[in-house]
Here is the input.
Amino acid sequence: MTVKFREFRPLDADEFSPFDFFDDGAKQRTIMSSQYGSDVFTIYDEEGVMGVVGCTPIWEGVANMWTLLGEGIYREPKAFSLLTGKLIEEMFNKYGLRRADAHVKMGHDKGVEWIERFGFVREGIMRRYLPDGSDAYLYARYL
Here is the structure.
């Protein structure tokens, strides 16, 4: 299988089911982010959409990076991760980033492992941060 990416299209959100740890509004926020200037990419293979990767600039040199992932990532986990890493690097270069923030829901150990592979380090806990009021770890990657 070949894993590829393209610019996100709103209908891509209907082509996969995000993991349960994403709240019900995650798809709508992804669509809104793409419409309001974030860089949003759909990662897919021959079987369909695997997930979405996004970068939202905050101010010069700083951005928030995020994902919306589904079961499709398990079809080709290494290829999916390599492509995600490439997109992270491209966003650092495109925006001249010195810092990128991300978050992982507390208790989502696989998410913690995954984000740390990309060089993100945990900075702390954001209490009641997520839409459902749950806590999340704050991560950042610096250049």
Observations:
- The domain at 4-142 is CATH 3.40.630.30 (Aminopeptidase).
